[in-house]
Amino acid sequence: MTMASSLCAIHPFSSCSFRDPRFRQSDSRFTATYFTFASSAIPNSSSTTLNGRSSLDFSIQKLNPNVGPRRIRSAVAAGPLFFPENPLVGDIFAMVFSGCFALSILRIYEETARRGVFDQKLNRKLVHTTIGLAFMLCWPLFSSGRQGAVIAALIPGVNIVKVLLIGLGIWKDEATVKSMSRYGDYRELIKGPLYYASTIALSSIIYWRTSPIAIAAICNLCAGDGLADIVGRRFGKKKIPYNKDKSFAGSIAMAASGFIVSLGYMHYFSMFGYFEESWEMILGFLIVSIASALIESHPISTKFDDNLMVPLTSFFLGTLVF
Question: Which stretches are transmembrane (predicted)?
Fold first, then answer.
């Protein structure tokens, strides 16, 4: 509770959560009328654009000297990167761009799987590690609020439908099966890959980019769980006593990589003003990463699937520590 309160005191928009500012009643200093007045002070400008950010910063500070640079960046970052004057068009454009970006990465791995460039299990883990993180890189392209979150979630949502169709045998796609399955069985896709896509979609809709819970869930699932398998297979000679299928090297790699990548995305999103970096948040990421590694090493994860247990741990524990 103390951790959340201290962070909320720093965050310029937040009351006691990391929810997106547009999910709550907006600050009176950031109404449409206020921004219209601020924008009109900029010569030859009818709308607030990224090119006029410095002029907008000066105008807002001149109107209200109590507004700091971080608050200004948060306000400017409220709209989509593309077509900020039309949020819906901008979000659709961001969705197309993000979808093509993620699809191009997936196509590369499908081609490497078809050509046998990597071992099938390694190829699968490379897909597992990169796709979710690449998609999260595109979140700043979307607008803040419910609209941007839902439109962004359509990208993993489409993948959920694809995975279900392939996993149920309705759609034949050998390249996708080879790149996502352990043993080349299409029915595997309705377990791990389905949980994976669902985690990313739910992180987008429920938590979005102003919540460290979304960062923790996706980073521990993608970077943590992905590198745990890769490192464990190569250096995991010493097995964990309570689970001979897991190694100390793999679990340490999972905790370390999940934590480090979480810090990277914390800094990345803080540059856009979505939240403030803090030592409390860093400690929270460390706790969640260690707990996720412990759960992943437990036999219960082998029984129910890592892609299910790791996100559930991140969501639950993240709610307590952030």
Answer: 88-106, 126-142, 148-171, 248-266, 278-295
Q: Which helix (H) or strand (E) holds 99?
A: helix 87-115
What pLDDT shows up at residue 255? 97
> Average pLDDT, stretch 112-141?
89
The helix (H) or strand (E) run that includes residue 245 is: strand 243-247
Closest residue by Cα to residue 304 from 220, 203, 195: 195
**Could you give the CA distance from residue 6 to residue 16 in angstroms, rounded to a whole number?**
9
Predicted confidence (pLDDT) at residue 233 exceeds the cutoff of 50 = yes
Q: Could you report the per-residue pLDDT of 240-258, keeping only the tens digit for each?
A: 999 988 999 999 999 999 9
7 and 275 Cβ atoms separated by less than 8 Å: yes
| Secondary structure (3-state) at 297 | helix
CA 69 from chain centre, in angstroms, equals 25
Tokens of 32: 């449409």
Q: Please indicate, yes or no, whether the overall pTM of this predicted structure exceeds 0.85.
A: no
Query: Is 14 exposed, middle or buried, given 0-12, 13-18 or 19+ CB atoms closer than 10 A?
Result: buried
Instruction: Please say if the pLDDT value at position 219 is more than 90.
Output: yes
3-class SS letters over the chain: CHHHHHHHHHCCCCCCCCCCHHHCCCCHHHCHHHHHHHHHCCCCCCCCCHHHHHHHHHHHHHHCCCCCHHHHHHHHCCCCCCCCCCHHHHHHHHHHHHHHHHHHHHHHHHHHHHHCCCCHHHHHHHHHHHHHHHHHHCHHHCCCHHHHHHHHHHHHHHHHHHHHHHHCCCCCCHHHHHHHCCCCCHHHHHCHHHHHHHHHHHHHHHHHHHCHHHHHHHHHHHHHHHHHHHHHHHHCCCEECCEEEEEHHHHHHHHHHHHHHHHHHHHHHHCCCCCCCCHHHHHHHHHHHHHHHHHHHCHHHHHHCHHHHHHHHHHHHHHHHC
CA gap 65, 58 in Å, rounded: 10
